Amino acid sequence: MSNDDDMTPTEREQWLRDHGVQIESSADRRKAESALSGTDRPLSVVEQVQRLSILDAAAGGENGVKFVYLPHDTSQKIQTVCLPSRLVEALGPAGDIIPTYVKSFFADGRSIDEKIFKDQAAKQNLLGGDMEKFAANAKEEKLATVSKGEPAAAAVKEEEKKTTLSSSSLMNATAGGSTETFSLVRPSKTNKNEGVYIYLDEVGMLKHLPLNTRASQLAQQCGYHPAPNFYGDVFVGRVSSKPMLHNIDIESGDIMDTTKEWIVRAPHENVLWQQAINEATGRSGETQPNHAGTEGVAAEATGNDGCSYTWLQNEEEVELTVPLIDDGDETVNKRLIKVNFLPQKVVVKYNNECKVEVELYSKIDVDGCTWTLDKKNLVITCEKARDGEIWPRLELSG
């Protein structure tokens, strides 16, 4: 092989094969991936973990850490996946390593909706000034150190740290994937120092990811009322805080079977935790803020002619109330009303004048849409295409 430098990559690869060197070519990898996924598409993060587990087992490696993949699409199965032991060793083994691993799954290249960001920033007093960490659960995780023996005052002091945020800096910060950790139940003496967490895309709502109703139901079973909204695919993992924080196994059956002890005990565990935090901080328990148009409180919007209208929503429907004429003696002529329902759009015209033309945040069932007249207001009821979906706002984009 004296003329190695003159060889093409293909010739060099063939020379190595002829001399007994085993080489996995890119074609071999694609073939193996296609065999695992059943298609020619790239492997998903779950399939990648499964493939690594198979290779690790074939190499004589021991089983690593099992956790659960919970897709938002209810037609897809909830799956148990396993981080190979070599990855556990590389990423840990101390500490919760799942957020570090799954964050690449959330680097999907989706852009952040500027208007939703501004709306959420205004609600949380984030925009144009100081803010607490964007993920609300990050505050909880700082306080969670109380359960690990650190003084409550130190945990509270850490929680008070502030930073600044803009939509552009948030987009840059999350471009490589950003994982938010939500506590279903935290480690404590009463649960053998074992906690269970949901790992999700920190900016999933801002990316218009679909609602994950199964994740919300799981949180509700653990005592969260109202149930938090989770967007996109999520993962569920378990940790033990003794003798030091580290991951332990959890499987799909552990979250699908509501009779499992950890689920049954979780509501009581969370009440005790909140009481401990209230005592440490001197504050009352905080609840998840209501979403726009919920709890019977109408949200305002602006129509095409500049007039204001309002809207309400629940898990099944969204309702728009549109004034058709100004106050006065004039009455509404039903024959002049035209309402056009499309899968993700509603257009309202009166006397050939467009009052509302709104591209909706999510899809509606056109056959389940109706309208009625309430004096001078048009009341439109649209059935949501996906039950259980709470929209962060009415419109798809600003």
Automatic annotation (TrEMBL):
Composition bias, Basic and acidic residues: 9-33
Domain CS: from-to ranges: 304-395
GO cellular component annotations of the record: cytoplasm
Gene3D superfamilies attached to this UniProt entry: 2.60.40.790
Source organism superkingdom: Eukaryota
Record-level GO BP terms: protein folding
Transmembrane segments: none
Pfam families documented for this protein: CS
Gene Ontology molecular-function annotations: unfolded protein binding
Annotated stretches, region: Disordered: 1-40
Record-given protein name: CS domain-containing protein
Annotated organism of origin: Skeletonema marinoi
Taxonomic lineage of the native organism: Eukaryota, Sar, Stramenopiles, Ochrophyta, Bacillariophyta
